[in-house]
Amino acid sequence: MNLLRKLLSRTATTGLAALALAAALLPWDWTPWAAWALAAGTLVLAWREHPELGPDRDRFARGVALAAIGAVAAQHGALPAAIAAGALIAVVGFEPLLAVAVATGHMTSANLEVQRDRTWFTPRAVGETISASGFIFALGAGGSLATGTGGPLWIAAVAALATVGAAGAGAAGALLQRRRSAHAGDQAVISALEALEPQFIVHFSGPPGSAYQLEMWLPYLDRLGDPYAVVTREKTHLDAVRAATGAPVVVAPSMSELERLLVPSVKAAFYVNGSALNTHLVRFGHLKHLQLFHGESDKASSFNKVTAIYDTVFVAGQAAVDRYRAHGLDLDFRKVGRPQLAAVATGPRTASGPRPVLLYAPTWTGLTSEFDYSSLAIGKRIVEEALRRDLAVIMRAHPYTRFNLAAARRLDEIERLLAEDAERSGRAHLWGSQAAGSVGLVDCINAADIAVCDVSGVATDWIASDRPFAVTDMAGLGERFTEEAWIAKGAYRLDRDAANVAAVFDELLVTDSKAAQRKETREYFLGETAGDAAVEVFTTAAKEAYRA
């Protein structure tokens, strides 16, 4: 269903626009109003999805909708309808070029005192003006249909011509600015950053839905006490990042914009993933480049040799150091534990309500089969075993799970199973947005008695609780599993076909024969500090790294 909703959201505007144009060409008395309503609906949907300039995904649909409005309006005023439709279709068609012009000297930012010389030719102002002109055209066309006259259309024509004129004037001014300086940047943002005097910046780039990688670190970077700025390369992350910190956030899509943001006070850059765009900043040798990553695991990505480009790599414990060295990388490591786990309740398993609770947290399928550690193929078997034993289930899937159609289908099947069981039995399961979003992983860990997870960062985070857990052996390594997934030394191995699922749950719920080994594994991966002491370890190491 989620995939269907996404598909509908991506095709709704195009479909409505096509229907509007078809209705506009039909000869029946009622079709002009149908065409008008469908076209107006297209414009409203496009505006709601993309309130600012540059909705490239909907440019075609908006152009078709404007053509449909023009076709029905031409019956009562051919000249003003042609002027309005032609002007607006032209400005929508040239929107990508206009977006470049608008972006000249204007970087989107948040939590930053920016005083601009230019207040009208901004992305939001231009985008809203184009949308408003489209709505005026739709209203004028509706008025002409209702009155049978072309008068209302002349108002729309004037508004459309004014929009084209303003966009042209603004674009011309931006072109002149670009001719005066090849890398003008946004002086208002640059001046605001210079006044702030940030000691470091945090560089972030990632696909939609990946802002959690940065969000997990922001509270601890805030605790460092020094001014800093977050630089994200994609605008899609702005709202999430702005909500997670009071530090300035600047969107810098281009390399030249990024370069101008390196004001003299900046001494270092932090990174939270291995994005290819990190190289745009790593090339600046006068900065210290500090890699935090966003989780600690035995995945192959956790010993990628590209990590050598950073000056210092922050890791949770000795396990990460040994893992890198085992694969030929001996870097400047800082062992800081996982400050995000400070609130994890540590201790023996205790009752969590009327029945034990299982946290099932499968990882995503990765971009290639080499990095596919996901257990969703056997996820239904795992959940069915939990239900057979009268457990409540917290189903927390990786945020990228639905990037893969097969994984999304399996996740939907498990969530349907939980929904049906909750209705039938009254067991308090959590899944989907209930087990994510505002409910963090630490909250899920604290609410669970046992866990089943994959080779992923969840396993390392869970071990902070010192409660029983199982790790899935999806590569079918058998007895060699612990040689590749060191975290599994403190866990119970679940076969790739889930053939031993009953025996694993017996260990999790009854026997727990690895309790002593789990404590050793916990210290190996996370170090000896826990709680607020782990936060202090990180803040001390971070300050030493960027102030040196």
UniProtKB/TrEMBL annotation:
Sorted alphabetically, which SUPFAM superfamilies does this protein's record hold?
A: UDP-Glycosyltransferase/glycogen phosphorylase
Q: Does the keyword Manganese apply?
A: no
Q: Which organism is it from?
A: Glycomyces tritici
Pfam families referenced in this protein's UniProt entry, alphabetically: Glyphos_transf (PF04464)
Looking at the UniProt entry, the stretches that span the membrane are 32-48, 60-77, 83-104, 125-147, 153-176
> Is Ligase one of the keywords UniProt gives this record?
no
Keyword line: Membrane, Transmembrane, Transmembrane helix
Q: By what name is this protein known?
A: CDP-glycerol glycerophosphotransferase family protein
The record's section on InterPro entries has: Glycerophosphate_synth, TagF_C
